[in-house]
């Protein structure tokens, strides 16, 4: 789904271990943005983070494990879902958050690099799936709330609705050079809402 672009240099409390992890993950982000997944090297990341190579190799062991931890950290830092009181408001908030993330020069490049990694590395693919699973789980309750309010059919699949919001934005980022503006985000939210109201995302047994 989406994360709010992080502020460079921010470190969460928790002692030396947390500081080391934050420095290494920040260095991994830099390397992914600059070189992509194929250019990742644990020794280079250790040097960038000003951390001992042994520490990095012992804790992460591989670039794939490091990318997985980076995605886990990004999921932890993601903003909580909006509760606007309406399906339209909630889906629009989700779409705009996705757009802000993908349109951000750093975060957008980072997501593209991770997606490329996932196409050629099974462990990176699983880490990416886990990241999106967490984000969809965060936002799916807004669909359940809409069902309770009578806005949607009772058997609407919340996961499918939330995925439908972000899918057009990722597709546009990966396949065109068109800017990801707020209008595109709002269209994605409106389309997902209309389809959900029409019953397109009702669960089908069998």
Automatic annotation (TrEMBL):
Pfam families in alphabetical order: TetR_C_11 (PF16859), TetR_N (PF00440)
Domain HTH tetR-type: start-end pairs: 18-78
What top-level branch of life does the organism fall under? Bacteria
The feature table lists the DNA-binding region at 41-60
Q: Which GO terms describe its molecular function?
A: DNA-binding transcription factor activity; transcription cis-regulatory region binding
Which InterPro entries does the protein's record reference?
Homeodomain-like_sf, HTH-type_TetR-like_transc_reg, HTH_TetR, Tet_transcr_reg_TetR-rel_C_sf, TetR_C
Protein name (record): TetR/AcrR family transcriptional regulator
Record organism = Kitasatospora xanthocidica
Species lineage = Bacteria, Bacillati, Actinomycetota, Actinomycetes, Kitasatosporales
């Amino acid at each position: 789904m989406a994360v709010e672009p992080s502020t460079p240099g921010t470190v969460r409390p928790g002692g030396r271990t947390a500081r080391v992890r934050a420095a290494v993950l920040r260095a991994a982000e830099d390397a992914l943005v600059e070189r992509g997944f194929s250019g990742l090297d644990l020794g280079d990341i250790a040097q960038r983070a000003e951390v001992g190579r042994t520490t990095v190799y012992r804790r992460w062991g591989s670039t794939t494990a490091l990318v997985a931890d980076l995605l886990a950290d990004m999921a932890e830092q993601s903003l909580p879902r909006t509760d606007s009181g309406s399906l339209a408001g909630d889906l629009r908030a989700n779409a705009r958050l996705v757009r802000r993330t993908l349109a951000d020069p750093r975060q957008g490049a980072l997501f593209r690099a991770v997606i490329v990694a996932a196409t050629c590395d099974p462990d990176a693919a699983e880490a990416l799936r886990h990241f999106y699973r967490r984000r969809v789980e965060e936002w799916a309750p807004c669909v359940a709330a809409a069902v309770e309010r009578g806005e949607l059919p009772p058997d609407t699949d919340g996961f499918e609705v939330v995925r439908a919001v972000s899918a057009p934005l990722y597709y546009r980022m990966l396949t065109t050079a068109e800017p990801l503006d707020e209008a595109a985000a709002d269209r994605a939210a409106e389309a997902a809402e209309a389809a959900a109201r029409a019953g397109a995302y009702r669960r089908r047994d069998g």
